[in-house]
């Protein structure tokens, strides 16, 4: 019984090994190159167009072998920082990258074999294409004005140059993008740039202050001119009103001079209306001021005739106003 069980286990293991020898699997994001006696042709590539993923069968080694399995997705390769000189002789440190994928697995296999060798070739080509940066000034690569920024143009030229070189060699690589990740100024150059930026900002600030002072002077001059016009108009209007008042007063004085006693009498009545407007009792000297009219009453009655009784208010003495 035990021997039979061991035999069954041995057969299962043998079947698994045979299955691995005669079959292989390709994932949907992979491409496989199958060689026959060490050679590969167009029929050796599996899943190159995205339609061959799954389980495949082959002859066991050494007849056929899965030589390479490549990633079909886009890969990003970043290069190290390197110094580059721009068109205006500015030394900058540039970091670049390239996005690429395997377009033809058979050509790629024949040219490189593995991805590491392909990345070394791409780094070399990328450093060569980076010379295109020398055709642009520092202001073209870094600028606050989007209209003057030519960085996308430089990246397009780098991409075109690299793709042309790779196509001529037949490497089976498709470049999707070439970009400049960072542009860094060297320390000595940075100090000069900062000084130039500082002086430029100071010049702009001085110009802004000068324009502000000129605008303030213009506003003050206009305000003073308006003030003078308003004051002149007000003085002119006041003189006209004063002249009208003097003319009216002269007319009143002329009328009053014709009958001075009557004019004085009217003025006293006006004063009485102002002073006696309320129900108030005053004790005043009727012989002074405008109240002298109260002292000019009728003659006093004869002695003993019509004397008021005690407690009878009757006629008030002169000088008492109620």
Report on the structure:
- This protein has helices at 2-22, 105-111, 115-129, 138-141, 151-169, 187-258, 260-275, and strands at residues 23-26, 30-36, 45-46, 54-57, 64-71, 75-78, 82-85, 91-102, 173-185, 282-283, 320-321.
- By secondary structure, the protein is α+β, with helices and mostly antiparallel strands.
- A hairpin with an 8-residue loop joins strand 2 and strand 3.
- Helix 3 crosses helix 5.
- The chain has four domains: 2-71, no CATH class; 75-185, Band 7 domain (Tetrahydropterin Synthase, Chain A), CATH 3.30.479.30; 196-258; 262-297 and 318-322, no CATH class.
- Helix content is 48%, strand content 19%.
- Residues 299-322 have low confidence and may be disordered.
- The strands form four sheets. Strands 6, 7, 8 and 9 form a four-stranded antiparallel beta sheet that branches.
What keyword list fits this structure?
disordered C terminus, four-stranded antiparallel sheet, 322 residues, 48% helix, Tetrahydropterin Synthase, Chain A
